[in-house]
Write a structure and sequence with these properties.
With 160 residues, the chain is of the alpha+beta class. It has a single domain, classed as 50s Ribosomal Protein L17, Chain: A (Alpha-Beta Complex), CATH 3.90.1030. Helices cover 41% and strands 12% of the residues. The protein is built from five helices and three strands, in the order H-E-H-H-H-E-E-H. It has a three-stranded antiparallel β-sheet. A hairpin with a 6-residue loop joins strand 2 and strand 3. Helix 2 packs across helix 4. The model has no long low-confidence stretch (mean pLDDT 83).
Length: 160
């Protein structure tokens, strides 16, 4: 598995399907598909958002070679690039929904994060713990001072 899952299709059909699904995801911002297809679409959709955030001519040409439709391309480079300008990654969310009747395939919604009418709200960012002071390896620990008895100096009896 070097690049993609096979998804039971020849390479041309598989790439055509994934390109269409990414374009539909950008256009509608939520689609329902099988879990394995959603995982593959998620990888490609995140790459398209990265290209939109880059905003260069080369990025626009790479994205235009993948997605279908000028309106989709325009949405990637304007609306979605602006929405995710501060986010470092993880632009999509996959929510498992049901088991499909007929072939018992596990289904899932894949949607963009931070949009209106989300199925589940984004979690707030977890605060970072305060930085720890580096330990001095030569200092005696508190536990050894607590449990070890203090050292007593030896007195010599030969002085008497």
């Amino acid at each position: 598995m070097t690049k993609f899952r096979k998804l039971g299709r020849p390479a041309g059909h598989r790439m055509s399907m994934l390109r269409t699904m990414v374009s539909q995801l950008v256009q509608h911002e939520r689609i329902e598909t099988t879990v394995t297809k959603a995982i593959e679409v998620r990888r490609l959709a995140d790459n398209m958002i990265q290209l939109g955030k880059e905003g260069s001519l080369a990025a626009a040409r790479r994205a235009a070679g993948f997605v279908r439709g000028d309106d989709v391309l325009h949405k990637i480079f304007t609306e979605l690039a602006h929405r995710y300008k501060d986010r470092a990654g993880g632009y999509t969310r996959m929510l498992r929904t049901r088991i499909r009747v007929g072939d018992a395939a596990p289904m899932a919604y894949i949607e963009f994060i931070d949009r209106e009418n989300e199925l589940r709200q984004s979690k707030p960012a977890t605060p970072q713990p305060p930085p720890r002071v580096p330990l001095d390896p030569w200092a005696r620990s508190r536990l050894t001072r607590q449990y070890a008895p203090p050292k007593e100096e030896k007195t010599s009896d030969s002085d008497l």
